């Protein structure tokens, strides 16, 4: 069940209404049932995988908790804890590997062997990638790690823990929640709170706007170009890439806002996942603002255990590269994602290295805090990020290389006249696409200094209602939906 | 003194009320935009006119699908019976929809007879992914009601309930079609319209394509025909309604060329007859009566628009028979019978197939042709004057004014033929028309109860032809034809004057 489907329009209000009518004792059970129903609407058999993951990590937590009360030496306790953590991690990652990466590594192995002249026949498993497996696996693993590190006591209530892993708003595409934040919230009695509901619904509406009006419309042009890149050149490839930069932002940030908003309506607070990332002035800052729940996950559970910032620069750079290569692979079983991760890792290494030089030799080309300097940095950063998106979006590496090679071909005339509308979007849809992206940037710009939701809530009721209704009507009328089935969210495939 | 705390329930209720009001406003706007962006069609029009009828004004209500709206003319029934009837039909309608249409209609009207076109009994349901447009179209005009919700749930998969209920969700892309929005606004602003009873007259057209359709008309094997479970269920529900509300139900099967010539059709007829009579309802099968009402297989040329639906010519024959049947069996009140001025006035607005017994009203429409003709069709049927006027672009009226002392009885034994021959210019006729000779506007006249001795008849002609080589008028009956009245070189203007 997609957020942008008609079923969800019935599902969510029904779930919410009954949730608030139920007594505290049953609220968690209701949410658990509907979360599994939500997940099973894709494929009922997927529920077994999420259940296995839940049981393993739940038991790991229970056993980790028991170790402390055993009459054993600290050394043995530590070893035993590590054993439980290893079992939890290896079994979960094994499932993830099998469903997501087996075919990829198998095919890659066969290709490499063939290049070396060795004849190998690889077998391929015809399994569909379970929706959101990377998200809930990482969320469940973070719990094991948090119990191991003593950040949280093991959850004894299996039902509540199962709900933590499967909570439907963020189940299939995050934000990847931490047990320390979400688990305790399931123990509280959630009461009907008008203000929370209002805030949540406004956020959901903004999410729908990003997804249905912007992302799905931009996707038409992006798909036309990226599914047949050799039919396009220069400015067409550039336009599709810039459109993709906004498509993926609006698609994923839209999903996150709907998830956070829906949780808020139900009385739960999820972590923020996006913070106007294209306004970043450096790649480092970009990763503090883009997919925050994943980047902090990698920071806490991979980068720090690898050593983090400790040690020599070389050692730190190695850690950075490892994290971003893994992050690339996390996004998808394709070399294009690995290259995308490697590019971002390299950006960060080079940025850090250059920063060191700039500080050391006190280079000051311009006033670093000036407006023009900021604009320049934002623009440069956007270009770098957008360039990396080429690899992220391309279907194959050879497509990526074709696009990079032909990106600077001079064919600006294609931007004018009717040729612009041969890439999937007609004149009206193209206009709406551009206007809505500009509107998004305007909103992001305004959000730097003020909370727009607070501004809306402070307005006189008729104005407030006009804003709500106007926005909802804009989504319903100008949304790109209906002709085909609802468009999937990009991050569902991860 | 400690002030009393206001109960939290009060605040909650106030906010809940606000929320409800907000939802109401929002739904209203969504609905409004849904209508503005929707392509208005004849099914919606039938609902709109139905809701505008005076309450409990109908004697006969006709329900069904396209076969119903092409076959049963409420105007002819009303002219014969002197009553008010209405046809509430949609495209490819199935029994589920027909049942809920009836329930909805009974909230506003209390007819004595409900005629249900039997082709809705197909045994198939539209609760499939296909056929969406037709289900949407059937539901679009119905007001928001419990019946509408039930009709949706009976016909659409659950994931499409919201989309069916709110047309904006499926029509939102029409925001690009400014002309459509303009048309919808203009129609709303134009206010109320002519008397419309739901009938869609269709002109016979013998194009090569239609000829091939007749030649290749599929003969379905009905030897093992059975009614579907859903059909039987809804027939039973209609039976309950008829008992509760006290109306008579007639299932009528409109004639269909392939069925008339199909030797296995008798099996289907028998099954329907048995099931319908088991419920105590009446069944009239015009495939079986085709002979007696003059719709012979060889007459398909002017009895059917294509091999499935009846043409205007066939429709009038069937409607006359149905009307006479209602009258003969005393299923209706005596009706207006020329006493009710409003009814006479209403019938006076009807073109074609009705011979008016009043002096022809003066109109402000453009007269394209007017002539004293004094032409004798038969000895006692003399045309005094012939006018051609323009109603709107592509729609004209031919008016024949008869001499006093018209032999009505003799006239009624005949049918009119009106053949329009185009001048063969490339700009005048479509490619697919080049091979055929004329457009056929044959009709059977119906006479309103007489009060005076002045008679005239109007035949509406809807055509794309501009340059007419000639128009032939005449009377015919089996085996004989009258003299022919011919008008030559008529120029029909394309633009509104």
UniProtKB/TrEMBL annotation, chain A:
What is the first-listed, main subcellular location in coarse terms?
Answer: membrane
| One annotated GO molecular function | acyltransferase activity
**GO cellular component annotations of the record:** plasma membrane
* UniProt-listed Pfam families: MBOAT
Question: Membrane topology for this entry?
Answer: Multi-pass membrane protein
Q: Name one GO biological process term.
A: alginic acid biosynthetic process
Give the matching InterPro entries. Answer: Ac/AlaTfrase_AlgI/DltB (IPR024194), AlgI (IPR028362), MB_O-acyltransferase (IPR051085), MBOAT_fam (IPR004299)
Which compartment or compartments is the protein found in? Answer: Cell membrane
In the record, the note on similarity to other proteins reads: Belongs to the membrane-bound acyltransferase family.
Q: What is this protein called?
A: MBOAT family protein
Identify the species of origin. Flagellimonas aequoris
UniProtKB/TrEMBL annotation, chain B:
- Where on the tree of life does the source sit, at the highest rank? Bacteria
Q: Output this protein's name.
A: Uncharacterized protein
